[in-house]
Amino acid sequence: MAKKQSKSDYSAKSIQVLEGLEPVRKRPGMYIGGTSTEGLHHLIWEVVNNSFDEAMAGYAKNVTVEILPKNLVRVTDDGRGIPVEKHPQTKVSTLETVLTKLHAGGKFGGDGYKISGGLHGVGVSVVNALSIWTKAEVQREGKTWTQEFKQGKPLKNIKAIGASKKTGTTITFEPDPEIFPEIAWNWNKIVDYLRQQAYLTKGVNVKIYDKREVADEKEAYKEKRTGFCFDGGIASYIKFLNRGKETKNFRPFYVEKTTDDVYVEISLQYVEGLKDHLYSFANNIFTTEGGMHVTGFRTALTRVLNDYGKKNNLIKDKNGGSLTSDDVSEGLTSVISVKLRDPQFEGQTKTKLGNANIRGIVYSIMSEGFSEYLEKNPNDAKQIIGKCLVSAQARLAAAAAKQAVIRKGALEGMTLPGKLADCSSREADKCELYIVEGDSAGGSAKQGRDRNFQAILPLRGKILNVEKARLDKMLTSQEIKNLIIAMGTGVGDQANLDKIRYHRIIIMTDADVDGSHIRTLLLTFFYRNFEEVIKRGYLYIAAPPLYRLQKGKEVHYAYNEEDKNDILEEFLKKEKLKKGEVKTEVTEEGEKIAGVNVQRYKGLGEMNPGQLWETTMDPENRVMYQVKIEDAAEADKIFNVLMGSEVEPRKRFIQAEARSVANLDI
């Protein structure tokens, strides 16, 4: 036991003062969210956002990001360049001040930036603190200036290294392995982020290079490269988000306007589908929790559609009166971007915009612009309102079912499904629910499980494809109803994820085409109706073995062909060594080793309870994949392609991906 500290031991010496960038290295999670892959990539976002701030201010036209060998990243822009003269407060160069002092930047007042995403002024200094090496190069005042840093501390003073007629800033950094356990840059993640920023800053030219395989700068042919420049801004973004989908208004609505120093940009388009996709930004920061700009937009959208519909006799009393916000949201893809001088974000993570005046400004601009759009495009207006009316009619038709099933608490109040073999524990964070394909596999799983914390729910056949079904139709499916009741969350507007009974929900299906289809149907169900389950990290996919290999009393399980071949190779090596043979490499005789039995599992039901526990359910040995949503837009696109009503996109997907499917087992 630690020695108890006496009152006299607690003095001024007990208080630790962290100076400069020490707090960042001590608590990196406070500044970049953590040291995982998300935190690592946040370093790039912090640097590149400064370049986009220059572009938003009208000073930069080009932003370049290069991923270099040895984990280095170089970000270059042609903005004004960070000032280099001596700072009056710090008595060192302004460049050194910006890179070594927290909350130092041009975004806290004055005329440096009217709008910016770097609200807290900690961006590039945090990157410097968490990098083992950083180099800043500035072209400004007719010269090129440079300074290097190690773990946030200057190695040398700033110096001019030559003349230059250009302006701009280049930041090169190498993340510190003492801070980040794994340093692996994700090309797709970087490209997706920069594409989004390019859409939000129309006209800026963005280039991205991956030079990790380039030993010499002259070997340009080895580079992976891409680039973006979108003069259409977020209207182009809408088209990108809706690619491959059936649209209701062919030409997306778009409006941009500045009111009271607030720049507002809105674009929207309706597609054939049920899900609402809204992307909101404030100063290019993705406000995932919305805020006042979203409130103003939704209010204006509902009012304008009702006014236009009633004025043009498209909405009548027999349709159920006025459209609701839910009615006008089904199948809507919208992007709202506001740029303002003093954004007030709620919380350190900047996920919700709180400026009260923004609601009225967005409402006014959206109302005026969308009303004009509907008047000028009567055919598109008719298509949009027609879709909203279908949503309204479905809402009215489903009202009774919803009342009976949801609002009266029927799902929550019903007894657990008879097929559910529940666990004895009631601590959700320790409990697991296995969703199993068929009664045969369900029987093995029920016998092989640990009854204390593992519950089993067998499904009969393939569940309803919820991509094409509204809530009322979905709840007519007994299998889906059983699953919802087992989870204990409720569904729809009454869903409460805090009531979930299991913190690990594991999809366990056969390793064949039918099993893959059932798994996809279940993933669609969770993504469309319980996205929060995925975001909280509760959804998993079990990975049962494909083969059981036995030689005498020695048993091994293989999860893929490579595993199987490795095990066979080991068996053959042992066999040859027993015979005194020196050569041990495996040839085509691999699977014909004397005494080796290779069993291919066609389904989970072929495993006895002990085997299923040992390979797929035992926490000590099992292999599971946690389901994550790395890119919501891409995930939505894939679900729409695979499970939507349009056949042609699915056909193209299958043709494109067919060659990558190995060992297709029909």
Report on this model:
The protein is α+β, with helices and mostly antiparallel strands and 666 residues long. The chain has 3 domains: 22-228, Heat Shock Protein 90; 234-404, Ribosomal Protein S5, domain 2 (2-Layer Sandwich); 410-544 and 626-660, Rossmann fold, CATH 3.40.50. Helices cover 36% and strands 19% of the residues. The strands form 4 sheets. Strands 1, 2, 3, 4, 5, 6, 7, 8 and 9 form a 9-stranded mixed sheet that branches. A hairpin with a 2-residue loop joins β4 and β5 (153-154). The longest helix is centred in the middle third of the chain and has 30 residues, at 378-407. The protein is globular.
Concise overview:
The longest helix is centred in the middle third of the chain and has 30 residues, at 378-407. It contains 20 helices and 22 strands. Helix content is 36%, strand content 19%.
Which features does this protein show?
20 helices, 3 domains, 666 residues, Ribosomal Protein S5, domain 2, Heat Shock Protein 90, Rossmann fold, single chain, 5-stranded mixed sheet, disordered N terminus, alpha+beta
CATH architecture of the largest domain: 2-Layer Sandwich
* CATH domain fold name of the largest domain: Heat Shock Protein 90
The major β-sheet equals: 9 strands, mixed
Query: Which term fits the overall shape?
Result: globular
Unreliable residue runs: 1-18, 405-410
For the termini, the CA-CA separation is: 62 Å
